[in-house]
């Protein structure tokens, strides 16, 4: 009788106290819950960002949406970062890494990976902006595509729909102009860019996989 009582008590405890949420087996962690901007903080004009039908909609004046949530204490060094993205005609956006929150202006720290399939800026989706640029258009407007960024040490790999577009290794001795002193491999968070009022871009399935240092 004692064993049966203990067994029943154990079942009751399990029912009342669900186990902690398991880490994904493949190491990917979601940074966007699909319902809200919890864990994110917008600069300049927060109204540029909203959530609709499971996606972050970026549309409005210049602004940047920084990840400030608990994963990794929003500080990443080596990682894989990816999102499903859809551009609309004439739109421009970007995915920043190794950056940090700032109240206004273009992020001074970190690198930008371009999101642009038909904007007047010739640097296309997948470009490591102004460092190693892509001229061809790797994806289409009004269609979902995956942009995938891998940073390991000084090496940056950028893929669009599993196709590698950029392989860049930052030199050990790097000279940057005063205005670009923060554009270096270091550590930091991620940000999504709202470029201008005529641009409208969608993001979903925003995920990170931390890698060993």
Characterize the largest beta sheet: strand count, sense, and whether it forms a barrel: 8 strands, antiparallel
Total strand segments: 13
CATH architecture: Sandwich
- Model regions low in confidence, pLDDT < 50 over at least 5 residues: 2-22
Taken in chain order, the helices and strands follow as: HEEEEEEEEEEEEE
Helical/strand content category: mainly beta
Provide the number of structural domains. 1
Strand content: 35-45%
CATH class: Mainly Beta
Name of the CATH homologous superfamily: Exo-inulinase, domain 1
CATH topology: Jelly Rolls
Q: How much is the average pLDDT?
A: 91
Give helix % range. under 10%
List the helices and strands and how they pair.
Elements: H1 2-16, E1 29-30, E2 40-42, E3 49-52, E4 55-59, E5 63-67, E6 79-87, E7 93-99, E8 111-115, E9 145-152, E10 155-160, E11 163-169, E12 189-194, E13 200-210
Antiparallel strand pairs: 1-13, 2-5, 3-4, 4-13, 5-12, 6-9, 6-13, 7-8, 7-12, 9-10, 10-11
Report on the architecture of this protein:
There is one protein chain. This protein is mostly beta strands and 213 residues long. It has a single domain, classed as Jelly Rolls (Sandwich), CATH 2.60.120. Helices cover 7% and strands 37% of the residues. It is globular, with a radius of gyration of 20 Å. The chain starts with a helix and ends with a strand.
């Amino acid at each position: 009788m004692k064993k049966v009582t203990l067994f029943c008590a154990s079942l009751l405890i399990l029912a009342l106290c669900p186990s902690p949420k398991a880490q994904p087996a493949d190491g990917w962690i979601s940074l966007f819950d699909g319902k809200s901007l919890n864990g994110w903080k917008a600069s300049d004009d927060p109204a540029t960002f909203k959530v609709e039908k499971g996606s972050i909609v970026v549309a409005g004046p210049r602004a940047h949406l920084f990840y400030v949530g608990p994963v990794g204490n929003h500080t990443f060094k080596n990682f894989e970062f990816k999102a499903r993205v859809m551009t609309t005609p004439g739109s421009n956006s970007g995915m920043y890494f190794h950056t940090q929150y700032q109240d206004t202006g273009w992020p001074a720290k970190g690198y930008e990976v371009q999101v642009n399939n038909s904007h007047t800026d010739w640097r296309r989706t997948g470009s490591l902006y102004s460092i190693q640029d892509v001229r061809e258009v790797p994806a289409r407007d009004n269609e979902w595509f995956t942009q995938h960024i891998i940073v390991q040490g000084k090496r940056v790999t950028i893929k669009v729909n599993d196709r590698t577009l950029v392989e860049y290794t930052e030199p050990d001795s790097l000279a940057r102009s005063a205005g670009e002193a923060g554009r270096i491999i270091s550590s930091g968070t991620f940000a999504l860019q709202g470029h201008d009022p005529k641009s409208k871009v969608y993001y979903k399935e925003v995920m990170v996989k931390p890698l060993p240092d």
